[in-house]
């Protein structure tokens, strides 16, 4: 299926012709899907390109889910290991990032369900006390503004952290990864209406909890 919805009569690149000879794939593919198809055909360099491009965003997404940097990096490593192991059965039926984040979200949700109580303390004392300070210091002229920004950001993170795991994952993908409803539904293996319901309940909870900050 043409992802852009536009039929073009021009010739496709040679790699696409080669792939089409072996398997049926969309005539027009995003760059990441093109690279993954090359990985499927044995191109190790293309996997390195995908890893370099997406490792940071995946770690960032997982950190927001599990609230532990070391765990986020470990889960990201497992995510890309699973991507590589699944290369032989990969089909470009959806955006590569949708498939990638489905794997990452599954691993993150499983880790949360296992129950790791020490994760929350690091979320409040780790990034909030270190990474946020650098960002505020770069952009704000006064100590008072820095403190206000840090307090608000910490409260938002606390509120998101207290959401049920699927609501949290949906909010992170929608708000921070800017994913469409259809992509989130694909990641969470549910309908778009279920995603909208998850987001509605999550944002209602966040608005109620954070109303005092307005």
CA gyration radius, whole angstroms: 20 Å
Distance between the termini: 46 Å
Structure annotation, total helices: 11
CATH architecture of the domain at 25-118: Orthogonal Bundle
Q: Major beta sheet, specifics?
A: none
What would you call the structural class?
A: mainly alpha
Helix share, percent: over 70%
CATH superfamily of the domain at 25-118: RNA polymerase sigma factor, region 2, helix turn helix motif
According to CATH, the fold-level topology of the domain at 25-118 is Rna Polymerase Sigma Factor, Chain: A
Low-pLDDT parts are 1-28, 117-141
- Count of distinct strands: 0
Strand content: under 5%
CATH class value of the domain at 25-118: Mainly Alpha
Word description of this protein:
The chain has 214 residues and is mainly α. It has a domain at 25-118: Rna Polymerase Sigma Factor, Chain: A, CATH 1.10.1740. 71% of the residues lie in helices and 0% in strands. It has 11 helices and no strands. The protein has helices spanning 14-22, 31-40, 44-66, 69-85, 96-114, 119-127, 131-139, 143-161, 165-176, 181-188, 192-209. The longest helix is centred in the N-terminal third of the chain and has 23 residues, at 44-66. The chain is globular and about 55 Å long. The termini are far apart. Residues 1-28 and 117-141 have low confidence and may be disordered.
């Amino acid at each position: 299926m043409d992802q852009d919805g536009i039929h073009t009569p021009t010739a496709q690149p040679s790699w696409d012709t080669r792939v089409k000879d072996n398997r049926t794939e969309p005539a027009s593919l995003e760059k990441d899907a093109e690279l993954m198809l090359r990985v499927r055909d044995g191109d190790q360099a293309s996997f390195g390109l995908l890893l370099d491009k997406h490792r940071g965003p995946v770690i960032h997404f997982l950190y927001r889910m599990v609230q532990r940097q070391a765990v986020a990096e470990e889960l990201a490593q497992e995510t890309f290991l699973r991507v590589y192991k699944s290369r032989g059965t990969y089909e470009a039926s959806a955006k590569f990032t949708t498939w990638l984040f489905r794997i990452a979200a599954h691993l993150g949700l499983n880790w949360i369900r296992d129950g790791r109580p020490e994760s929350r303390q690091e979320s409040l004392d780790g990034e909030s006390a270190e990474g946020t300070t650098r960002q505020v210091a770069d952009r704000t002229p006064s100590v008072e503004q820095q403190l206000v920004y840090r307090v608000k950001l910490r409260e938002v993170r606390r509120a998101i952290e207290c959401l049920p795991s699927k609501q949290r994952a949906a909010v992170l993908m929608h708000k921070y990864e800017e994913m469409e409803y259809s992509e989130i539904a694909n990641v969470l293996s549910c309908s778009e209406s279920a995603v909208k319901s998850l987001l509605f309940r999550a944002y209602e909870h966040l608005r109620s909890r954070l109303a005092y900050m307005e």
